Structure formats: structure tokens, C-alpha cells
Amino acid sequence: MKVVEQYILRRTLGIFVATLFWVLAIVWTTQILTRINVVTGNGQSAATFFEIAWLVLPAVIPVVIPFAVGIAVAQTLTTMNTDSELIVISAAGSPRMTVMRPILLLAVGACIVSFAVNNFVEPYSRERLRVLISDARADLITSIVQEGTFQQVEQGLNMQIGERLPDGRLGGIFVSDTREEGIELIYYAKSGATVDLNGTNLLVMQDGVVHRKTADGVSVVQYKSYALDLSQFTASNSGPTLLPKDRTLAYLMNPDPNDPVFKKSPQGFRAELHKRFTEWLYPMVFALIALAVAGDSRSFREARVHPLLTTMTIALIVRWAGFFAADKVWNVPAFTPMMYGVPIAACGVAAFFIATNRVMELPLSVVERGQTIWTRLQQQLVAIKVRLSGYKRALPGDPV
């Protein structure tokens, strides 16, 4: 690799790593916050929260990598063009591949990483995440032993413990079960304890009553001792339900015919398989779009939309089309060719612009219209600010 190519690769890789880190941090944080209720709502430890946070990360990486590649390539080439470096490289007689080769090398590496994470890392992290969430939801012994608070185990099932006694027993036990339509069950006991009997979690309640309300009336049963099977409140015994996106590539290619999820939606497995075969192409798509937009040397005094904005606008349109096809193919198999057609067509169009020495830009009419709208908006904001300042000066009691 030439010195110039190493220079371009080093600059692009630096911006790519920085962009990937910050964008990944933002998206990762939003994904973690959506799952924080697993810890706060089920009494889990901080270690469980951090493990869930790390397991969420592989699902975010393939989505962020293409955008990081597009931003890195567009920003690097734009800066080099502003500093007249592209003009010098061209004037020295270097072929266009001198600029393209390091960009394509970075894109190929990003595609390989995206494919590996999407097919070999993410399925295992998703499966482990399902197990953790299922265990957290099934851990009723930890969940209910929180004094003075109601814990919703699932829809229609709530528990509350009044206090935890010094000898480890529980006091003031209250259980409300309205999961079965037309039947309301309310358990109350003065004291009780949790017991593990042959792998079955039991809540043994003493000195309490059971209220049963149906359409025929209300019945009240008083008891001295009553054992409530906690395992009936969760489906933890059967393990977590694994969806197609939680499965490995090998399983998607040869699913178990007896899999209840596969029996219910076999098209979902085929859709996920096609998604795995197309998602890894988008880093190359974004890199070619950035090359088509900012790969040529142009005068920075020339009026044009910033290449980074143009690159991201076109890339977002292409990515939206890919998401649309992937979503539709779950119910309509006819959209399968579109999943492959979108990235391949985008690569073909960008390669055409590069090969014919044309610059891919947004239509001038759209740019001018956007600039006009922005100018009008600025003028309206200034007018509103002037009116507000005049209104404040006219308020009574203000010093003249």
C-alpha cells in the first residue's frame, strides 16, 4: 500500500472509530434504559443490569456500523478536498484507485465485522438475554420480599409483603390474582415463608383467608395453613421463548420442524435468514455513496450542499427502503427480492456515478427550496423576538 493510501486509511479509520464510539454510546444508552425495569421491577442485582447492558451491545453494532462508515468517508474526503489534498493527488497523476482503495478496504472490513457480529455473536447474546429476563421474572422469592411495595409479577397478578420478620418469615402477605377472566382471587395471610420443596417454590401462608369472586357471588375461606405454588405464576419451567432473531444462522437454515415458533410463523424464519444475508452489505453501500458524493476534487468556493449532509440524506433513504422491505417480508414473501435489490441497486448507482466521473448530489431545486424555507423560518423567529422584546418594554411598572 502506498504512503498516500496509508494516510487516507489512517484518517478515515480514526474518524470511523470515533464516530462509531459516540453513536454506539448514544444508541446503546437508549436501549439499556428501556430494559432498566427488569432490575428495578424484579429486585435484581447491579451485576444482572450490567450483564444485560453488555448483552444488548451486539444487537446495536450492525445497525451503527454503516452510518459510521458513511460519516467517516464523507468527512475525510470533504476535509481533504477543502485542504486541496485531493487536487494535489490528482495533479500528481495518481489514479482514482489511490483514493478509492483505502476506502474500499475499510468498507470490506466493516462488512466482515458486521456479518460476524450479526450471525455469530448477536444470536448467543440475544438467547442469553432472554434467559436473564425470564429468570428475573421467575425469581419471585426476590421480587416479593420488598417490604411495603406492590410487585406486578405479570398482567393481573400482584403481590405485596408488609414486613420481613427477624426470624426470616414474612408478615402481612397479600396476593391479588385476576388473570382468569370472570374470577378474582385475593389471598391474605398474617405470616408465611417461602419453601423450596423438590425444586418447586412454595409460599406457605398461615392464619389467613381466600376471597373468591365470580359471577355467582363471593366466597370466603379461612385457613390455618395454605401452600401457594409459585411456579404457576411463571412459565420459567419451559424456558424462554426464542424468536427467529434469537436463533443462529445454522438453525435458521435448518429449523426444527417441531419448534412451536416455527410452526406458528415459518415465514418469520425465512425473513430473518434473508435479513442476515443482506444486513452486512450496507457498510459497502454507505462507503460507495460517500465516494460518489465527495470522492472528486472540487473547489470549496463552489456553492453546494455539504457532502456529509448529502451522503447521510441519500444513505438514510436507502436504509429506510431496506428496513421497509425487511419488515414487509415477514408477511409478504414477494418483498424478498427487494431486500437484496435495495443494497445491490444502491451500490450499482453509486458505482455508475464513480465510473463516469459524476458527482452524486441532491437535486438543486430541493436544496434551494430547503434554503428558502430555512431563511423564512429565521426571519419569522427574528420578528417574534422583536415583538416579544417590545411587549416586555411596554409592561406597566417597568422603568422608562
Description of the molecule:
Helices cover 59% and strands 16% of the residues. The chain contains 13 helices and six strands. Among the domains are: 141-238, no CATH class; 361-389. Helix 10 runs antiparallel to helix 11 and helix 10 (282-294) runs parallel beside helix 12. It has helices at 3-33, 37-40, 46-82, 85-91, 97-138, 140-144, 249-253, 260-264, 266-279, 282-294, 307-328, 336-355, 364-393, and strands at 150-154, 157-164, 170-177, 184-197, 200-214, 217-229. By secondary structure, it is an alpha+beta fold.
What does this entry show, briefly?
With 400 residues, this protein is α+β, with helices and mostly antiparallel strands. The protein has helices at residues 3-33, 37-40, 46-82, 85-91, 97-138, 140-144, 249-253, 260-264, 266-279, 282-294, 307-328, 336-355, 364-393; strands at 150-154, 157-164, 170-177, 184-197, 200-214, 217-229.
Please trace the helix and strand order, writing H or E for each element: HHHHHHEEEEEEHHHHHHH
Strand order of the largest sheet: 1-2-3-4-5-6
The tally of helices reads 13
Reported for the largest beta sheet, the result is: 6 strands, antiparallel
Shape: elongated
Radius of gyration: 30 Å
Q: How much β-strand is present in the residues?
A: 15-25%
Give the distance, in angstroms, between the N- and C-terminal Cα atoms: 74 Å
Total count of strands = 6
Which class best fits the helix and strand makeup? alpha+beta
Helix content: 55-70%
Unreliable stretches (pLDDT < 50, length at least 5) are 234-238
Mean pLDDT: 82
